Sequence to fold (268 residues):
Amino acid sequence: MNADAHKRPSLSDYREFPVPVSLGDHFLCLWTQAIPDRPQYAHRVLPDGCVDIVFINDEPPIVVGPWTGPFTARFASGTRITGARLGPGQAPGVLGIPARELLNRSVPLSLLWKRSRAAPFDRVCEEQNLAVRKLVLSELLSHSIASAVPPDQTVLASTRWLAQHPHGRLAQLSSSVGISERQFNRRFSAAVGYGPKLFQSVLRFQRFLYCLAKGRDAHSLAEVATSVGYADQSHMTREIARFAGDRPTALLHSSKCTLLFSDLLQAT
Fold:
């Protein structure tokens, strides 16, 4: 889940934190967000190929699935949010549901887990301090993933291949893993939420945001387009409009990459 929380820094305090070793095989990061005193905060969420478990104030936790386009969540003044971001392909093993069933959806965690597994997470909502909430969430997740099912290793390896080959042909990839393209697409969608071609595009988009965070400016957008895997600047403009609903220059100071803790950005 990718947040547009930086148009004006005072709007929202959004922070990401590395996970402990016990969670490293499944989760990319933990994150917190605090909304300061103002009538309402509009939070734009951009596609990143991930699934998040999210705690908002003292409400029951929700699972935010992978999205194929931007959406806006609105929060009241003083809202406190804590989240845990699952890596691409990890959601089915941890949550017990194919990721494609979460596509463009947010659902209560209680619908996915039995009460005995979900009940301990009420402790997160009882804490007022974000740092404490994050610590409690980390401890509870470490215990909970003991029952996680191993992820689809073929899909995980394929996500890395797609990261390394921004223009790679899917027929070549499915052939290299030894399964039909139809079966490969089915397994990939079950693990990630959507097909490999769309995932490849989302990675390009996230890599674009990553490059902007490193200090590229509007005068070098054509260079950025080439470096992250777009065919040309017009290709970049179309895909960014698809995933952000905006022009590339509008993202220069307004959005940030949410795959910073993933090795997929460094795959090329």
